[in-house]
Design brief:
heterodimer; A: mainly beta; seven-stranded mixed beta sheet; four-stranded antiparallel beta sheet; 11 strands; B: mainly beta; six-stranded mixed beta sheet; 12 strands; 51% strand
Chain lengths: 116, 115
């Protein structure tokens, strides 16, 4: 059991559906992240939140909409996705955003998303 | 531009032997951190080891050690006494400078430990 919990673990959705991915951490971390992991590609950073404020959006299509209502929860709202959006979506948290010297991010187990 | 390069898509090692997973990186920032993560088939990314660019000694964590060669921009992971449970994907990652929010990952190496 990791300190970061993601739900659901698996999600199959049609291109016209609207769904949300949830991430929760109770580690007292101040920064949270969404990453996309596609087959045969390196992990791609999608969004960064620090103290509930979005600090980075890496040119992610608007069909992905993040929400961070508090420092413990992070959502990724999905709508009108494309089949190429099928991937493993990983949430991570870290103690701080600006400190280089740290002990790594804590990742969740991910949500395996399939768009049909 | 690719910042992290892992040239070994797959590696095999006999149980109880040591294995080295390669990682090279590219940065002009003097301050950076290097990380290795393990991803089992269950999906979660597990942090293994960290090396700071100013660290004088190579990092070690149990059976994991990092062979840090700064001039060559290389940060290879060494796993000693391999166990069957070490079979997984291994990712090298780098985070540059203070204020940079992006931890860049390599493409990964799939390690298979044979009994």
């Amino acid at each position: 059991e990791t300190g970061v919990t993601q739900t659901p673990r698996h999600l199959v959705m049609g291109m016209t559906n609207k769904k949300s991915l949830k991430c929760e951490q109770h580690l007292g971390h101040n920064a949270m992240y969404w990453y996309k992991q596609s087959a045969k590609k390196p992990l791609e950073l999608m969004f960064v939140y620090s103290l509930e404020e979005r600090v980075e959006n890496n040119s992610v299509p608007s069909r992905f909409s993040p929400e961070c209502p508090n420092s413990s929860h992070l959502f990724l709202h999905l709508h009108t996705l494309q089949p190429e959006d099928s991937a493993l979506y990983l949430c991570a948290s870290s103690q701080d955003l600006l400190v280089v010297r740290n002990y790594g991010y804590t990742f969740g187990s991910g949500t395996r998303l399939t768009v049909v | 531009a690719q910042k992290i390069t892992q040239t070994q898509p797959g590696m095999f090692v006999q149980e109880k032997e040591a294995v080295t997973l390669d990682c090279t990186y590219d940065t002009s920032d003097p301050s950076y951190g290097l990380f290795w993560y393990k991803q089992p088939s269950s999906g979660e990314m597990i942090f293994l080891i960290y090396q700071g660019s100013y660290d004088q000694q190579n990092a070690t964590e149990g059976r994991y050690s990092l062979n840090f060669q700064k001039a060559r921009k290389s940060a290879n992971l060494v796993i000693s006494a391999s166990q069957l449970g070490d079979s997984a994907m291994y990712f090298c990652a780098m985070r540059e400078g203070a204020g940079n929010n992006d931890m860049r990952f390599g493409a990964g190496t799939r390690l298979t430990v044979k009994p």
